[in-house]
Specification:
456 residues; mainly alpha; two-stranded antiparallel sheet; 20 helices; 2 strands
Length: 456
């Protein structure tokens, strides 16, 4: 087949040139963002409910509609898969001025959300009609945050679906992320509140959401004296100590970190354009192992001490309460939110998952020592292009393993599959099964995950 530069150029349009549909989508998106900015300053409790409802519908309709239309159109007109157009030089994706500006804005949003919610009062009151419809009560900053979070996953997830439309694994994985975040993490807790039930997010387990198995939370759930509340206690215990080990044994930690968890879902959708910024150095790997396992150890000990607190002297109880508050502040707020998401454009999208998430550490230990999951490599076909290492959001130097035909069995790997997708030679496969035989990966829905050969 003729592969002249002219033909290749025609098959891969210049990503910086906007067609009329993209310009229209950006204009609609800009109108929606403008509506949110004005709403932040001009909407309050005195604003009529009807006006707030129309304002909210117009703002979200423009943001979601314009954002999805732009993302889908941008990637639908290109060849599918990851393209290296300016990834290491553009201001947005290479820690340039745009990246720094977004990092400052994201960080400022989280600081306001956690410690100065009154500064977001306009957005909170703007979302009152939606909150009343879903949860039967006015909105608060957490409802607004959940709405923003879900919209980001949905809009950027639609873009990711268009970008990875050639991969069945990615299509199903990203669709699952959007579904779980929309239904189980946003709509279901709100509807449960409307039905006078505990607002339980069933997709978050201990030790990620450390309060799930704390005695006060367990006793509070049991005090509801409803079948659903009792089920929640059973679900959180079984999910942590039965479901998680079993699924990790068969599929690795990817079943949670890349398919279910909201942190990973945001990283693989809204943060996808920054995955190449992860630190691949040996120093970062050493730091990662110390920090993430230290956080896991701290929350295990803290949970045990909280359960033992009634049997300990009062001085120890006060210390335990203080340690719990500091853990919630430093790990639950600063690390996972302000740093973990706020610094996406500077540090990559899995800083929290790599260095701080105790659930990732727990599942990672199971994956490394007790799981059938691994990424296999055919080193004889490797051309050392480095794409696999570049786009590993967990900072794994995949090329090092591929060159040596070594299986990648790392505790940090979340099985997102991008290393296999960007490989131009089909060197890498996501597989489940014993080392002998290397059974193809049934979870990928299409057998071993291989990158398609490049088109002429």
């Amino acid at each position: 087949m003729n592969s002249s530069p002219v033909q290749n150029h025609a098959l891969t349009p210049d990503p910086h040139r906007l067609d009329p549909l993209e310009k229209l989508a950006l204009a609609v998106l800009a109108l929606g963002l403008a509506a949110f900015v004005t709403g932040l300053f001009y909407v309050n409790e005195q604003t009529p409910g009807g006006a707030r409802f129309l304002w909210l519908c117009g703002a979200w309709g423009a943001v979601v509609g314009g954002g999805m239309l732009y993302g889908i159109r941008k990637y639908a007109k290109q060849l599918p898969g990851v393209r290296n157009h300016g990834v290491t030089s553009e201001s947005l994706t290479a820690r340039g001025a745009v990246g720094w500006l977004l990092a400052i804005l994201f960080t400022a949003f989280y600081i306001c959300l956690y410690w100065y919610p009154s500064l977001l009062e306009g957005w909170i009151r703007l979302h009152d009609p939606l909150a009343q419809a879903l949860q039967g009560k006015p909105a608060d900053q957490w409802f607004v945050y959940g709405t923003f979070y879900t919209a980001a996953v949905a809009v950027m997830g639609a873009k990711a679906l268009a970008k990875h439309r050639h991969s069945r694994y990615q299509i199903v994985r990203i669709s699952c992320i959007i579904f779980v975040q929309s239904i189980f993490a946003w709509i279901l807790p709100a509807l449960l509140a409307k039905l006078s039930q505990p607002e339980a997010a069933l997709t978050y387990f201990w030790p990620l959401e450390y309060d799930k198995l704390m005695p006060d939370n367990v006793h509070e759930l049991l005090s509801w004296r409803t079948h659903f509340a009792t089920f929640c206690v059973f679900w959180f215990v079984a999910g942590t100590f039965v479901l998680a080990p079993v699924l990790t044994y068969f599929f690795g930690k990817r079943w949670y970190c890349s398919w279910v968890c909201g942190c990973g879902g945001l990283a693989n959708t809204a943060g996808d354009q920054w995955r190449q910024l992860s630190d691949k150095s040996l120093r970062a790997w050493r730091l990662e192992r110390w920090t993430v396992h230290s956080v896991l150890l701290v929350i295990v000990l803290l949970t045990g001490f909280v359960w033992l607190a009634p049997r300990l002297p009062e001085a120890f109880q006060a210390s335990i309460d203080g340690a719990r508050k500091w853990y919630g502040f430093l790990i639950g707020l600063v690390f996972s939110g302000v740093i973990g998401v706020g610094l996406y454009p500077l540090l990559g999208t899995r800083v929290w998952c790599r260095f701080g998430c105790p659930m990732a550490a727990y599942l990672g230990l199971l994956q490394k020592y007790f799981s059938r999951f691994r990424i296999t490599a055919n080193g004889s076909q490797c051309i050392s292009c480095g794409n696999c290492s570049t786009y590993c959001e967990m900072g794994i130097d995949v090329k090092w393993y591929a060159q040596r035909s070594q299986n990648i069995v790392r505790a940090s790997c979340v099985g997102c599959g991008l290393c296999a997708e960007v490989c131009p030679r089909g060197v890498l496969n996501l597989e489940n099964g014993p080392t002998a035989g290397r059974v193809p990966d049934a979870f990928s829905l299409a057998g071993p995950l291989k990158a398609r050969p490049p088109r002429a």
